[in-house]
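Quick entry between incubations.
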Amino acid sequence: MSQNKQHYLLNRAEEACKLLKKHLDQDHVVRVISHNDADGISAAGVVCNAITRENSKFHVTIVPRLKEEVLNKLSREKYQLFFFCDMGSAWIEKIGQLKGDAIVADHHQTIDSSGDDQENPVHLNPHLFGMDGTRDVSASGVSYLVVRPLGNQHLSGLALVGAYGDMQCNDEITGVNQTILQEGINHEVLDRREDLKISSHFSEPIYKSLAYTFNPALPGISGDPEGSRAFLEKIGISYGIKFNDLSNEEKDILKEELVKVNPAIFSNTYRIMGEIPELRNIEDYSRIIDACGKSKNYGIGLSICLGDRDDSVKEGMELLKKYQDGLLNGLNWIKKEGSREMAHIQYIYTEDKNIKSFMGTLSSIGIDLAILNPEKPVLAISRMDNLVKVSARTTLKITDKGINLGIALREASKSYNGAGGGHNVAAGAVVPYKSLDNFLNLMDDIVESQTNPQ
Ligand SMILES: [Mn+2]
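Done. Structure below.
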């Protein structure tokens, strides 16, 4: 059944590939527009790598959101082919009115079905074919499907960088992501091995590596350098050296003890063969691109995806370190403040600019570490002048009960002249500050009605 659904998506991807190839053959510069997170940046990387390999050119812009203004600007551009990654499904009709042809490679729920039977744009989205864009494939994967018929299997690793960035590979890798992974392994560009899933293991002393490890969460250790140091001292491992410099015997002890904290710490990891150590593990690669995106250094992230293995990687690693330190700071704040609980949701609120940019991630990690109540969706709210930005997160266990944060945020924000949407498990919205209390009450009601449908 699921193979059958994938089949339809692959057919649509082939159609898009033919269109892309047609323009590349005519030496047209491809106008690539993508999203500013790890998935969007790696999706743009996949597309631009493929274009370069065909000796053609691209003009890429990374944007936080596809808004009407962006489309109005694009409508004055005279490119022959526009390629939208990680966005566009909500704007099919408008994209169809651009001067050139267009490909939309998206995986968000927000689908504008108008014109889905028209030829322009060629619209790829797993939701169109009954698949789950939250877990089964990300934009980098959908973009990969488009360039795959041109023999770009070496990009299968980058296709999964975005999936990790969108947190689709936390447990098992499913759906189209699994198909891409298997294709990479078959082409010997990817390999799988069981390993400790420790962050920054070649750049930081081991106690920091463990404190920076959030996937999976290690209670008492993740986000807590003191706790991490105490843990290592207790099991007799010198905390100040890097993981890679530990003796094999010490690595074995560490593994044994960490597995007791969380068995998921030792599990499948996937590597890109021939890649430099810093980027070899797909999850490490993804964390670096994510840090570039979150710090608005899109150019650095994109350069890494496009193959710069010197300065950009160094800069990316520094951004990652800064980002991880920011997370530790934010987690301390949550531990001190806690969340405010309503009947069906809880929220955290800040006006502190050092914490604002971490709010979405902090809620996910807070749930994983059980610093926040895992049973209620978390709304992380930061104030921006007259508006508040809302990032909502929950777990698959909660969405399985019928809760869909994307739909809830869209409805609730619309009622107060805001805008929002996203996935069932992670979504965002912007609403006027003055309506915040009413908005929260409405969200609480909507989430309740999603759990107990009439
Ligand atoms: Mn995405």
